[in-house]
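Example for tutorial group B:
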């Protein structure tokens, strides 16, 4: 497996680091354009401001909660030819025929049921439940403790707040 760079050093980045370490994935470094003053390592992982590796030498996961910023970074890295990994906590329950896009993060204690489509660079946060036949658009964020009933559609770039409850067949637009 190629080494993984985590883009972002905030709380979301530390949670992603924890998930990656639980899987024993190789972590190269954190990347942060503006790291906190004087911080050179985070949990013994180096923090860099700009990596020098070219495409095909590593994988990326973007640990930025703000959807437009995550999208801008993903677009830039993708245009440079970089590839993204998907990160799934070992306690997540993923049903059959669930499609998960690149760069997506699925946190602890989530349940995603069959025939659900999850876009690229999505955050499915801690303790969320997504029932069957849902569609989650690219760069969306399903906040902790959210519940989506069957056949729910979440448009691209949306954030559902903590504890959201969305009924059967609801289309949450842009």
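The residue assignment follows.
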């Amino acid at each position: 497996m190629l080494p993984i760079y985590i883009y972002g050093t905030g709380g979301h980045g530390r949670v992603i680091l924890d998930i990656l370490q639980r899987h024993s994935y190789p972590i190269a470094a954190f990347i942060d354009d503006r790291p906190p003053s004087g911080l050179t390592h985070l949990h013994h992982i180096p923090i860099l401001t700009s990596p020098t590796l070219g495409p095909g030498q590593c994988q990326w996961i973007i640990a930025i909660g703000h959807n437009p910023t995550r999208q801008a970074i993903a677009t830039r890295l993708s245009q440079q030819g970089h590839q993204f990994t998907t990160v799934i906590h070992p306690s997540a329950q993923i049903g059959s025929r669930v499609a998960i896009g690149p760069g997506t993060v699925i946190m602890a204690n989530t349940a995603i049921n069959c025939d659900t489509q999850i876009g690229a660079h999505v955050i499915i946060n801690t303790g969320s439940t997504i029932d069957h036949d849902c569609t989650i658009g690219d760069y969306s964020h399903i906040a902790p403790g959210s519940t989506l009933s069957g056949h729910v559609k979440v448009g691209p770039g949306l954030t559902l707040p903590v504890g959201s409850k969305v009924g059967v067949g609801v289309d949450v637009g842009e």
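The chain has two domains: 4-84, 86-174. Compare this with the pattern of hydrophobic and polar residues in the output above.
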